[in-house]
Amino acid sequence: LAEWTKDEVWDYVRENDVPYHPLYDQGYTSIGCAPCTRAIRSGEADRAGRWWWETNAPKECGIHCAIETGGFEHELHAILGEDADG
User: Fold this and answer.
1) Is residue 44 scored above 90 in pLDDT?
2) Domain count along the chain
3) What is the pLDDT at residue 8?
4) Phi and psi at residue 75, in whole multiples of 5°?
5) Can you tell me the distance from the alpha carbon of 86 to that of 71, in angstroms, rounded to the nearest whole number?
6) Which of left, alpha, beta for 51 (phi over 0: left; psi -120 to 50: alpha)?
7) Which of 33, 36, 61, 65 is catalytic?
8) Comparing C-alpha atoms, which of 59, 22, 61, 64 is closest to residue 44?
9) pLDDT tens digits, residue range 10-38?
10) How far is C-alpha 78 from the geometric centre of its chain's CA atoms?
């Protein structure tokens, strides 16, 4: 699943009648806890509704962090506002 595209996931959900959270039908594209999640606006990235109050911070839990781009270390430095090379 980690390597499936969003379209592949939704195709599977529809073709196999997999239950999903009703918030997806209300414009939520990434669902977490209530205070950390909001529906996205037109034109926003799928993850824009998560941790929406944070700016210039990564919006990933870590599963999508590729080793080639620094993985978790890159995310940690971005959150802390540090230069990873410095």
Assistant:
1) no
2) 2
3) 96
4) -65, -45
5) 17
6) left
7) 61
8) 59
9) 999 999 999 999 999 998 888 877 777 88
10) 16
| Residues 26, 40 share a domain | yes
Residue pair 73/84 in contact by the 8 Å Cβ criterion: yes
Q: Within this chain, do residues 46 and 76 fall inside the same structural domain, yes or no?
A: no
* Domain identity same for 26 and 4: yes
Provide the percentage of residues in the chain whose pLDDT is more than 70. Answer: 59
- Show the domain range for 78: 54-86
Instruction: Write down the H helix ranges in the chain.
Output: 6-15, 71-80
Q: Which of 65, 30, 50, 68 is nearest to 78 (CA)?
A: 65
Q: Are residues 33 and 66 in the same domain?
A: no
pTM of the model: 0.55
User: Is residue 61 flagged as an active site residue?
Assistant: yes
